[in-house]
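FW: tagging you since you asked about this chain on Friday. Here's the raw sequence from the shared folder, copied in full. Didn't touch anything.
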Amino acid sequence: MEWRTFYAPAKVNLCLHVEARRADGYHELCMIMQKVSLADTLDICVEEGHGIELICGQVPLAPGEENIAVRAARLLLAAQNLTRKVTIRLTKKIPIAAGLGGGSSDAATVLLALNDWLPHPVSKEQLAELALKLGADVPFFLQNDTVWARGIGERFSVVHVDADYCLLLVNPGVPVATAAVYGGLTPEDFSTCAVVDRIAGLEALCGYLHNDLERVALQVQPVIAAVKNVVTAHGAQGVLMSGSGATVFGLFAAESDAVRAAESIRQEHDWWCEVVYVA
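HL: got it, structure written out here
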């Protein structure tokens, strides 16, 4: 029995513009997505037999609901026309339903791990198709770079961010349902952004910070506004809600300033805080 260890990084949306609602219910997006150093750990074992088992006491599931990492393993095995027993031991570090893409990253990591491990790997294009079947954010986690994501989040182009910074993530401990946030959008919330291939400097990057989901998310969880104000007050050069929330991130040029801010916020509020770096 062989176990291998893999890491599934979180992401932030440095900008998120909702351009339009599509006839199929999805939305056209224009956003910058970036991986950060915070990561879940997946220990995976593949052996002869059948069945997929997830070991994780940190992710509550409704009756009949299946974890997205298990669905990813099932899809990949079917694509390779294989039967194997797969055991996934998942240790969560990324907050759940927090706008950081934890579940999507877990699923993408399973796809990448098994595709490399098993004897009949599918192409990158096929892997991307499988990822999109699992969720709109999953294809991003197959990418190696900071990217512009367009369409529903499945079309990518690299953006070079020439800036030195770290990020302070702050989550107030309240979940936000992504579907509820998108469902509350109106055409007045929609916007777009010019896609560039390079952003030079932290000040320029801060100029891109924008999230069309914030209005609805703040209605669902008003505490997000308080988090943004607190992170700003502790010296962040730019502050934004990531994804559909409720996590807020602040950009800091100096790691020491971010660490001090995290320590102060932990003392002042019962909020989860983590200083992270571009992955």
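FW: The radius of gyration is 19 Å.
HL: agreed, and DSSP finds eight helices and 13 strands in the chain.
FW: great, closing this out.
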